[in-house]
Amino acid sequence: MRVVVVGKGGSGKSLVSGTMARVLARRGQRVLALDSDPMPGLAINLGLGPLEDEMLTDAAEKDESGRWRLKKGIGAARAVQRYSAVAPDGVRLLQFGKAGDQGFVPFMGSLNAFHQVLYRIARDDVLRDWTIIGDHPAGPRQTAFGWAPYADTFLMIVEPTWQSVLTARRIGRIARAKKQGEVLVVANKIRGEQDLRRVEERMGGSAFAVVPADPAVRSADVAGEALLDHAPGCPAIRAVEKLVDRLERRTLDLSETTKSG
Asked: What DSSP string describes 130-183?
């Protein structure tokens, strides 16, 4: 399973991706979480707190022309092994860093190394027995510029608001044009049938999964804790577990279809 989670800012991407990663790890899978968002979110939802480390700075160097590259001997697998952080349940997190007062300048080496790792994961077919969950920043930019070459599924988190729907539509058009993988809608912050119907009508199809509006999400955010640790039995967690169930069944079905074909 190789999924990237996309959508509008504040739609719940990091909550879904972080919770998915830990649920899958608890089920015995080796999971790599890839955080390409310069704003904090995924590390907190993995249970690591507000981690801002520029993880790949020591993996990067400049060549003779001044362009960043991975140091000799460091490929995708070694980068994950050497530089990733280990989150609860054994999830591995790799990120390039978080934007501060100086913007992206302090972690340009880490950023470029991270981007190269993404492509090496896809190109070299490494970590093939790992589950990969990517978390993109708000909007369509990274989808348009190919920041998820490893993904076979784009999981769009959509709230029942026009701003969220319009952003998701744009991301969906870009992702489908790339013909890289399937685009699935997750309706989030749903308060009832009317909200769900609104999302499905505006997106032009059924939601793959539904996550209800849940006060525990805000409570966990205020506490700075992963929702899975803060309220492990809450409705939002149960919904993400059902989402994982469906994704696992879908992955198994696709695998069996490929083998039989």
From this structure: SEEEEE--SSSHHHHTTS-TT-SEEEEEE-SSHHHHHHHHHHHHHHHHHTSSEE
- Choose between 102 and 35: higher pLDDT: 35
Q: How far apart are CA 168 and CA 27, in angstroms?
A: 30
Report the alpha-carbon distance of residue 166 to residue 86 in Å, rounded: 36
CA distance 59 to 65: 18
Whole-angstrom Cα distance, residue 88 to residue 118? 23
Instruction: Give the CATH number of the domain where residue 186 resides.
Output: 3.40.50.300
CA distance 12 to 185: 13
Beta bridge pairs of residue 132: 2, 32
CB atoms within 10 A of CB 79: 24
Look at residue 55 and tell me whether its pLDDT is greater than 70.
yes
Q: What is the pLDDT of residues 211-228, one digit of tens each?
A: 999 999 999 999 999 999
Find, among 86, 115, 98, the residue nearest to 25 by Cα.
86
Name the pTM for this structure.
Answer: 0.93
Give the range of the structural domain holding residue 98, as residue numbers without chain letter.
2-259
Q: How far apart are CA 78 and CA 35, in angstroms?
A: 17
97: left (phi over 0), alpha (psi -120 to 50) or beta: left
Per the structure, how many domains does the chain have?
1
